[in-house]
Design brief:
The protein is α/β, with parallel strands linked by helices and about 500 residues long. The chain has ten helices and 17 strands. Bound molecules: beta-L-fucopyranose. The site of beta-L-fucopyranose has 5 residues, from loops.
Length: about 500
């Protein structure tokens, strides 16, 4: 016998003493299309994370080290993991991903796999461990910890041969078993080229489709850290957004089927950026985008760039263009040669977070009258008030046939606003294809904003604040009934 959702709910209610059966329409909507895993859902709710690019390059003033740097150059005499993590926290960052090894192959932890590591640097007489210090500081201050381990290794003599893959997996095993829980493992797609390679000093190219045997490495991550989301150009959990400017497509679907230049299935290092940037409507995989970008022009700290740190307003623009388009923001904040976040960067981060807190502190829809054209089964479970309770698990849903509903928010008086936020209940998939916002002005509805994809979050800004007693949300396209978890109306004064 199969137990349907309806049977289950009815029997639960009967057990609680309710005497009536539950109508089908009071059941949650059927999920639609590709769905997020629990780990993806958890990751999407983080929204803003930090990247920490730190290695020998910080001291040699390079962006890509050749792999022949002496470990002796790495000596961050004022290293302070608490200062770094607290600066990120003041910027509203929920997690931090450290470049445990960049392309130069220098390991920031005392690995057993190579001598090209912190064990041979003068810092703490070779007894230091940057990975442990950052991991512990994130735990102390309530951030989650992630690792970046560059597949390309310009130091390793075996790079390009099968032996290196075993070393790479051993490095990953150390990182995923020595330092506690990891929320994200970041695999970049820059692969192969010239390097030191144990003294060979030559150019080595690899076949991006076969050399790394990614499925085996991903299975290792799953085994060692089942809660960690895996990032690469092509997933499997998180996709690259297709540029390093931090900007998602104006339309950006959570679903995506990455493709190579010749149309085959995309792989790390070979996936069309334009497809990654917008995602694929009705795609077969739930694969949310991550927007990586640096707070400075380079990924590593360079003194000459101290005057080019992005301003709080520039960071806010990036927030609207990433988080506000259903993606996550991964903002790089490179520690300096002291081993601290420079004052310019710390100020910009704090200023950005204060801007966000001010804008989103007061949802003007709170206390307004909400009138929906339809409520699923006329049930309290799916009422529009769920949009305002700040709980991503409660939502306004409509009857199965009601795909283009409307919602009027009546403030009872004129209010001023210029920022809007919508979130779908993405546990039911990405449903809505387009929507519009109208304001009641001079006795009629006038459209003031509109967009396509919503997904985990859609933020819209008006060029100027409007004054209105009523706003109307119109869902203009959806293949199935809708499930919306959040509607925010704000004033960025
Ligand atoms: C790229 C690297 O080549 C850059 O140096 C940087 O680490 C960026 C985040 O990923 O693939």
């Amino acid at each position: 016998m199969t137990i349907t959702r309806r049977d289950f709910l009815t029997s639960s209610l009967l057990a609680l003493g309710c005497r009536y059966a539950v109508a089908d329409s009071a059941m949650p909507p059927a999920p639609f299309g590709a769905l997020p895993s629990a780990r993806q859902l958890g990751w999407q709710r983080m929204e803003t994370n930090a990247f920490l690019h730190f290695t020998v390059n910080t001291f040699t003033d390079k962006e890509w080290g050749d792999g022949d740097e002496s470990p002796a150059v790495f000596n961050p005499v004022g290293f302070d993991a608490d200062q770094i993590v607290l600066a990120l926290k003041a910027g509203g960052m929920k997690g931090a991903i450290l470049t445990c090894k960049h392309h130069d192959g220098f390991c920031l932890w005392p690995t057993h796999t190579t001598d090209h590591s912190i064990r041979f640097s003068p810092w703490k007489n070779g007894k230091g461990d940057i990975v442990r210090e950052i991991a512990n500081a994130t735990a102390r201050h309530g951030l989650r910890f992630g690792v970046y381990l560059s597949p390309w290794d310009r130091n390793n003599a075996e790079y390009g041969k099968p032996a290196y893959i075993a070393t790479y997996r051993q490095q990953l095993t150390e990182l995923l078993t020595w330092y506690g829980p990891v929320f994200e493992v970041w695999f970049d797609g820059a692969n192969g080229g010239s390097g030191y390679y144990g003294g060979a000093r030559e150019t080595r190219t690899i076949d991006k489709h076969t050399y790394y045997d990614w499925p085996t490495t991903w299975a290792l991550v799953r085994k060692l850290q089942p809660g960690a989301s895996i990032f690469s150009d092509a997933g499997p959990d998180i996709r690259w957004v297709g540029n390093e400017k931090g900007i998602a497509g104006e339309t950006c679907w959570e679903t995506c089927d990455p493709v190579t230049a010749d149309g085959g299935p995309g792989v790390p290092g070979d996936s069309q950026p334009s497809v990654l940037n917008t995602g694929t409507r009705f795609g077969s995989r739930w694969l949310p985008a991550e927007c990586d970008v640096s707070i400075r022009p380079g990924w590593f700290w360079h003194e000459r760039e101290n005057g080019q740190v992005k301003t709080p307003d520039q960071l806010l623009d990036l927030y609207f263009e990433s988080v506000g388009r259903g993606a996550n923001l991964l903002l790089n904040v490179p520690p300096n040669r002291q081993g601290r976040v420079s004052p310019q960067d710390a100020e910009a981060l704090a200023g950005f977070h204060r801007r966000c807190q001010t804008i989103f502190s007061k949802n003007l829809a709170t206390g307004a009258k909400l009138k929906a054209s339809n409520v699923r089964g006329q049930s309290l479970l799916f009422r529009p008030a769920n949009l305002l309770d700040g709980n991503p698990d409660t939502y306004w849903a409509t009857d199965d046939k009601m795909r283009t509903p409307e919602l009027v928010v009546d403030f009872g008086q004129n209010i001023r606003c210029n920022v809007f936020r919508l979130r779908e209940a993405i546990q039911f998939g990405q449903r809505i294809g387009a929507f519009a916002l109208d304001a009641w002005q001079q006795g009629a509805w006038t459209q003031v904003a509109g967009a396509t994809s919503i997904g985990s979050c859609r933020l819209l800004r008006l060029p100027a604040a409007i004054e209105t007693p009523r706003l109307r949300l119109r869902i203009t396209s959806s293949p199935v009934c809708i499930a919306l978890a959040d509607f925010g109306i704000f004033l960025d004064a």
